[in-house]
Amino acid sequence: MPELTLLERLGAGNSLELAPVLLGCVLVSEVDEATVRLRITEVEAYGGADDPASHSYRGPTPRNQSMFLVGGHLYVYRIYGIHWCANVVTGPAGSGQAILLRSGVVTAGAEVAVARRGRADRLATGPGNLAEALAISGAHDGVWLGAGQIRLEPGAETPQYVSTPRVGVSKATDRLWRLVETRAGRSSST
DNA sequence: ATACCGATTGCCT
DNA sequence: GGCAATCGGTATA
After folding, report:
1. What is the spatial distance, in angstroms and rounded to an integer, between the CA atom of A23 and the C1' atom of B5?
2. DSSP state of A188
3. pLDDT of residue A150
4. A185 touches strand C (CB under 7 A)
5. Measured in Å, how far apart are chain A's first and last C-alpha atoms?
6. Strand B positions closer than 7 A to protein CB
7. Residue A153: helix, strand or coil by DSSP?
8. What is the pTM of this model?
9. Which residues of A in 73-132 have their CB below 7 Å from strand C's atoms?
């Protein structure tokens, strides 16, 4: 049978099993006639009604409705009334799962990212900064990642990573659902 | 209706 | 290390 595309996979699995799949993938932003490419290096999985730390835990609201779309859509929300945070929705429609994009490395269009961020370092470190570098805002909430200004492309392969508790979360702290790509080059047995 | 808090960040002391 | 910016959601009256 045919292999599933990345976006098809996003609609089939849950956020925790798809989180490592996103590591190494590329998020492409074509906003305001500028292109910025980002390799994803840090993500956090959020579940649905079973995850007390998730925005979707208590059901749909005007803010989180796009989180209930089928996997492969973008969920963008405003945090602290100031910053935007971008998530990749996963799972079947109505399940309310998503993966927060916390950090990445800009691989193309760095000049644009630098201009948007107003600095040359930490271009896309932290969810708010990542969204700013790619000019992702509420206007992109609910868009499909297969076409349009914001798109998701497969990576070469899943990089090495470590799992830790989610940042800034006070509930379900026993779940190691934050995945951080580890720097390659350190040789390890196995 | 009002009060408090959050999947954050950058600037202050 | 501490704190403000700023707003939707949830809790409390």
Report:
1. 31
2. -
3. 98
4. no
5. 32
6. 6-10
7. strand
8. 0.94
9. 78, 80-82
Q: What's the token pair of residue A167?
A: 């940042």
pLDDT tens digits, residue range A141-167?
999 999 999 999 999 889 999 999 999
**CB–CB of A24/A156 below 8 Å?**
yes
Report the 10 Å Cβ neighbour count for A148: 12
DSSP state of A144: B
Which residues have CB under 8 Å from A131's CB, separation 6+?
Answer: A76, A83, A84, A85, A86, A101, A137
Tokens matching residue A124: 């896309």
Determine the distance from the C-alpha atom of residue A170 to the mean position of all C-alpha atoms in its chain, rounded to a whole number. 20
User: For residue range A29-57, what is the model confidence (pLDDT) as tens digits?
Assistant: 999 999 999 999 999 999 999 999 999 99
The span from the CA of A126 to the CA of A85, in Å, is 9
| CB-proximal positions of chain C, under 7 Å | 5-10
In the chain, the amino acid numbered A102 is R
Phi and psi, residue A7, nearest 5°: -65, -35
Q: Which of A26, A6, A19, A184 is nearest to A107 (CA)?
A: A26
**How big is the CA angle at A95 (ends A2 and A43), to the nearest 5 degrees?**
75
